[in-house]
Amino acid sequence: MTERKPPGLPVETWVDRQIREAEERGEFRDLPGAGKPLPALDQPYDDLWWVRGKMAEERLSYLPPSLALRKEAEDALAAALAARGEREAERIIEDVNEKIRAAIRHPLEGPPLNLAPFDTAHSCASGARGTAAPDRTRRVRRTAGHRGRCRDSRISRRLASR
After folding, report:
1. Mean per-residue pLDDT for 88-99?
2. 37 in any annotated domain
3. What DSSP line would sit under the chain, residue for residue?
4. pLDDT tens figures, 106-147
5. Is residue 19 part of a domain?
6. In a domain, 93, yes or no
7. Which range marks the domain in which residue 74 is found?
């Protein structure tokens, strides 16, 4: 740890001395990236360059909450269809349905959610029979809440007519 700046000594002189002493001790030798060009010099300036770099380094990603919930719902459907028992599948679907209902009551940041809670009985029964259709819009019937009609059912009718 560095010592405190002595009173009466200009900050610049004190900092220069600290750097010089660290160089003499060899603390700047073998730093990662030494002798290599700076990354992303040819890209436009980004205020959050260090955040993006850290996220890439840590293999993290950020999705707006509404998109993260959509992805979680897709993953939950896949997990429910692969579940060993009907009770486990129902629990998975109910867990994601609870989050979807909460997001409908209190809208999330990001693009529109465009999700309705899944029909647990139908989802679990089709998963237990192993009759899941290859298209996500066909494998799950949405609960009534959009005047009995659902965008998913219109898409599946279009796909079926092809």
Report:
1. 94
2. no
3. -PPPPPTTS-HHHHHHHHHHHHHHHTTTTT-TTTTSPPTTTTSPP-TTHHHHHHHHHTT-----HHHHHHHHHHHHHHHHHT-SSHHHHHHHHHHHHHHHHHHHHSPPSSS------B-HHHHHHHHHHT---SSHHHH-PBPS-STT--HHHHHHHHHHH-
4. 999 889 999 999 987 665 555 545 444 344 433 344 443 444
5. no
6. yes
7. 63-131
| 144-158 confidence digits (pLDDT tens) | 344 434 444 444 454
Asked whether residue 73 is assigned to any structural domain, the reply reads yes
pLDDT in tens, 81-91: 998 988 999 99
Domain count, the chain: 1
- Which residue is associated with the tokens 């679907």? 93
